[in-house]
Every structure is written in structure tokens, then in C-alpha cells.
Write a structure and sequence with these properties.
This protein is mainly alpha-helical and about 140 residues long. The protein has a two-stranded antiparallel sheet with strand order 1-2. The longest helix is centred in the N-terminal third of the chain and has 35 residues.
Amino acid sequence: MKDFFKEFKNFAIKGNMIDMAVGIIIGTAFNKVVDAIVKKVIMPPLNLLTGGVNYSDRKLILREKQDNIEEVAIAYGELIEVFIDFIIVAFTIFVVIKFINRFKSKSEDPKNKEVATPKNIELLANLEKLMKEQNNLLRSIKEK
């Protein structure tokens, strides 16, 4: 049992697990912000433009509500709002990833002195440079 807890502790403390937890928490908070933007900022003008149609209330009624039987309906208005949420979240993630990739490619370029290159990339670049020198030296010996 002690080994089980030790293994769980090693799993839970690893950097990836903590990074993932932080990402989930930030993602949840971001989702609430996007939801508020869609419902309170985007949908009211859209409702105004469409003649006061409130999309969140839009539905296709399949069966009317009767005495003890509930209404059966397809709530396509909520689907429209969720789709708008999705587009905003997807676009935001695209922009963030694009920015990160641009910064990452700059930092991985050992010739770029503008951004500090990580040590592992620097070592690989030096190794590549030494291998090119070695290949040139071997070619020159072979040609003689």
C-alpha cells in the first residue's frame, strides 16, 4: 500500500499533471468569460437586428405540453449560442497557439540573438556545427 501512495505522489507532483490542472482551471474561467460575452454582448445586438428574436428561446416544438406530459422540443436557439461560443473559443485558441509557435520558433533559432535560446537547442546547434566541420574535414582528406 505504501508503494501505491508513493507512485501516486510521483504521478501527481509531475510537472505535466500540474500544468494540465492549471490549464483546466484557466480554461474553465475563460469559458465563463466567453459565455458572458456571447450572452450579454453579442446576442443582444443580434436579437435587435433580427427583429427582437431571442435565440436562446427558439425551439422547434415536436409535442405540445399537455396535462401530465412535458413538452418535447428541439432547442436550436441554444445550439446557435453554443456554436458562437465554440467559434470564439476556437479562434482565441488558434491565435494563442500561433503566437506561442512564433515565439517558440524564435527561441529555437540559435542564430537569433533577440531571444534567449534554450540550452538543449544551443547544444544541438553546436553539435550540428561540429558535425558539419567534421564532414568537411573528412571530405577534404578523402579528396587528397
